[in-house]
Hints:
Layout: H1 2-34, E1 40-49, E2 54-66, E3 70-72, H2 74-84, H3 87-107, E4 115-118, H4 121-124, H5 129-140, E5 147-152, H6 159-171, E6 175-181, H7 190-193, E7 198-201, H8 203-206, H9 213-228, E8 232-236, H10 241-249, E9 254-256, H11 266-283
Parallel strand pairs: 2-4, 4-5, 5-6, 6-7, 7-8, 8-9
Antiparallel strand pairs: 1-2, 1-9, 2-3
Helix pairs in contact: 1-2, 3-5
The structure holds ligand C2E and magnesium ion (3 copies).
Domain EAL: 24-277
Protein name: Signaling protein YkoW
Keywords: Membrane, Transmembrane, Transmembrane helix
Amino acid sequence: xxxxxxxxxxxxxxxxxxxxxxxxxxxxxxxxxxxxxxxxxxxxxxxxxxxxxxxxxxxxxxxxxxxxxxxxxxxxxxxxxxxxxxxxxxxxxxxxxxxxxxxxxxxxxxxxxxxxxxxxxxxxxxxxxxxxxxxxxxxxxxxxxxxxxxxxxxxxxxxxxxxxxxxxxxxxxxxxxxxxxxxxxxxxxxxxxxxxxxxxxxxxxxxxxxxxxxxxxxxxxxxxxxxxxxxxxxxxxxxxxxxxxxxxxxxxxxxxxxxxxxxxxxxxxxxxxxxxxxxxxxxx
Length: 284
Ligand code: C2E
Ligand code: MG
Ligand code: MG
Ligand code: MG
């Protein structure tokens, strides 16, 4: 009986693995066509100044509208893009589209705020990255201070390499934000030498902050450290008023999370930018 169960279990397991592999291979093939077929698009999540609830930036978040599977999240297809080398083409599309859209909003009289774009490790290490991004900014005529790149601590492992890349980017006027801060394993010493503008406190420290004293201590320490190092700091994943209150009490001035807004479509962002103006002009 044991044998029989074992055999069945084994067969079931391989069946599942095969199904997973098949799905991945299919997605991989579909992803190759996705850009050309206009299935890739960006949502934008507002970044808010807690003091006066003003929008101070937006983070571009990539999505894939798959013809049969519907909207697929980046957590699923970014790793596939990275494994297959498609990340360069995809990343370039994201950078260009985010910058183009921001310029269009600026031109239309929207707020002069920056767009944050997530960079994968492979993009960060691609040769001539700064020249590449400079080209995109020039093409869409966006000034570099309106582009913020979100990178992670794990990309800072080789201090000499990351220092050289970051200096080139920031000398051109591009802003740098450290995403998912606190979850990496790299030493903090890079913070004193590298040209970084902002720390983004990872969502995992925020989730239980109302009940977990350790999370609260870590978050308070990150905020205080950022202030002493003269860095901006933003908390991500704020979902409730109680979480917001703790952040504000600890002097965190910038907030990103469902409490203020989930990621919005480009049309919804436009609405948020321009709808109040429209209402006012109707009144006139
Ligand atoms: P991230 O850069 O840390 O982005 C924040 C993620 O948290 C987004 O998920 C966002 O929708 C989600 N989020 C924001 N506020 C809340 C909240 O209050 N509660 C909860 N539970 N979640 C919240 P999303 O859009 O699924 O993106 C996941 C990750 O995929 C991103 O994490 C980023 O690492 C990666 N990603 C997204 N777009 C790109 C891209 O264009 N290029 C690259 N390389 N990676 C991207
Ligand atoms: Mg991010
Ligand atoms: Mg993050
Ligand atoms: Mg993340």
